[in-house]
Amino acid sequence: MMLRTCRVLYSQAGPSAGGWQPLSFDGAAFHLKGTGELTRALLVLRLCAWPPLVTHGLVLQAWSQRLLGSRLSGALLRASVYGQFVAGETAEEVRGCVQQLQTLGLRPLLAVPTEEEPDSAVKTGEAWYEGNLSAMLRCVDLSRGLLETPGTTGNILMQLKVTALTSSRLCKELTSWVRRPGAPSELSPERLAEAMDSGRGFQVPCLNAEQNQHLQSSLRRLQQVVQHARAQHVRLLVDAEYTSLNPALSLLVAALAVRWNSPREGGPWVWNTYQAYLKDTYEQLRRDAEAADRSGLAFGVKLVRGAYLDKERKVALLQGAKDPTQPDYEATRQSYSRCLELMLTHVSQRGPLCHLMVASHNEETVCQATKRMWELGIPLDGPVCFGQLLGMCDHVSLALGQAGYAVYKSIPYGSLEEVIPYLIRRAQENRSVLQGARRERELLSQELWRRLLGGA
C-alpha cells in the first residue's frame, strides 16, 4: 500500500491550490525494512523501555563482561544495542549503513561519541582534546566521503560537541562571567572571532594563566574544525548541553558564526541547538534570529525538546536555584511549537540564509512543521530538514523520507569500548524518549505479525 504523502510545491506566492494532506505515520513504510531488522528493533526498544536496564547499564555491562567474557559479551551487544543504534566501527561499515539509509530516503548526521570525565586526568588533558580534534577532522572527511555513495545528497551535516574540544570547567567559568552585567569586552563574539582568526596570544582578564592558555588552544581547535568543514562543504550542528555550560557554548558558536556564517561564505556552516524544555529558549532564539538578521549573517538552528530534564531539576534543587525547565509536558510542547513557528517564519522570509532542523520524534510536531512548510511555500528539500536518532522513530523517518522531505539520522560510530558508555549515558538522558516509544513498538509488532501470518 502506498503511503499518503504531503506534496509541497515551492512557490513564493504561498501554498499550492491542491490543499495540504497530512503524512501517515501508520508504519506502512516498514515494508521497506527486512524482518530481521524489525525484530531486532522491537526487542531492543522493549529492553530500553525497562528503567532498571537504563539506570544500571554501565554496571550490567561490566558484569556481562565478567560472566560471559569480552568476546561473547561484545557479540551480544553487536547483535542488539550496538547494531540498532550505531553505524559500525570502520569507515566501510559506516558507508554500508549510510547506503542502506539512502535507499530508504534518509541521510546521515554523523556524531563522534566523546564523553568528557571531569575527574579524569586523562580525559581532561590537552592531549585528550587534541585527540578529539583529530577524530572530528576525520569525521568531517568521512561525512564528505559519504557523498560518493549512491542516493540523494543535499546538505552534508555533522554533529559537533564543543566539550570534546574544550573543558566543561572552562565553559562553566566563562558562563559565570557571561551572565554578569559587567562581563569583560574580550568575551564578545567579535573579539573571540578575531582571536580565532589571528591565532595570536589572547588574554581574558577574568581568567588565570592556565585558563587563558586552554582557551587559546580551544579556540584554535574550534577554528580548525570549522575551517576544514567549510573546505569540505560540511555544515556543523553544535550540540547543546547543560544550562551551566550553554551560555559559554552559545558564545563560542556566535564567535564562529561571525567568522563563518556570512553570506559570502555560503553559510550557515555553524548551527546552534536550542532546547525547548528550557523556559528562556523562545526569547533567546528570537533575539539570536533577529541579531543574525541585523548583522546580515546566515542563521542555522537545530530545534530539540531537550535531554537533561531530570539532571537540571536536581541541580537547581540542590543549589536552591530557580528551576530553568518548563513545568510539564504541555508547557514544553507549547514552547517547541512557538519556537518552530518562529523559525519557519524566519526561513520563509530569509530563504537560504536561514536553515532549520526539526529534531523531533513527536508525530504532532512533525505534522505541524510539514503543514506550515506548505502554507509558507517552503520546499520539501530546502532550508528545513528533519532529524531523528538512528534506530528510533523509523515510522516517522521513513514516512518523511518517502514523501520527499530531507530527513537525517543522528549516527554515532566507533568501537564497542567507545560507543557503549556513550549510548548508555544518552539513554539515561533520553529516558522519556525511550519509554515513550510505545507507539513505534506497537507498529513494529503489528508489521511482524502481519508477515508471520502472511498478510498482504
* Uncertain regions spanning at least 5 consecutive residues: 1-17
Proportion of β residues?
Answer: 5-15%
Described by its quaternary structure, the protein is single chain
Overall number of domains: 1
- Main structural class: alpha/beta
Distance between the termini: 9 Å
> What is the CATH architecture annotation?
Alpha-Beta Barrel
What is the mean pLDDT?
87
Q: If helices are DSSP runs of H or I spanning 4 or more residues, what is the number of helices?
A: 18
**β-strand number:** 8
Estimated helix fraction: 40-55%
The biggest beta sheet reads: 8 strands, parallel, barrel
List the helices and strands and how they pair.
Layout: H1 35-48, H2 51-55, H3 57-79, H4 81-85, H5 91-103, E1 107-111, H6 126-145, E2 156-160, H7 168-178, H8 189-198, H9 209-231, E3 234-238, H10 246-260, E4 270-275, H11 281-295, E5 299-304, H12 309-319, H13 329-350, E6 354-359, H14 363-376, E7 384-389, H15 394-403, E8 407-412, H16 416-429, H17 431-435, H18 438-452
Parallel strand pairs: 1-2, 1-8, 2-3, 3-4, 4-5, 5-6, 6-7, 7-8
How is this structure best described in words?
The chain is an alpha/beta fold and 456 residues long. 54% of the residues lie in helices and 10% in strands. It is built from 18 helices and 8 strands. An 8-stranded parallel beta barrel has the order 1-2-3-4-5-6-7-8, surrounded by 8 helices. The radius of gyration is 22 Å and the shape is globular. Keywords: FAD, Flavoprotein, Oxidoreductase, Proline metabolism. It catalyses: L-proline + a quinone = (S)-1-pyrroline-5-carboxylate + a quinol + H(+); trans-4-hydroxy-L-proline + a quinone = (3R,5S)-1-pyrroline-3-hydroxy-5-carboxylate + a quinol + H(+).
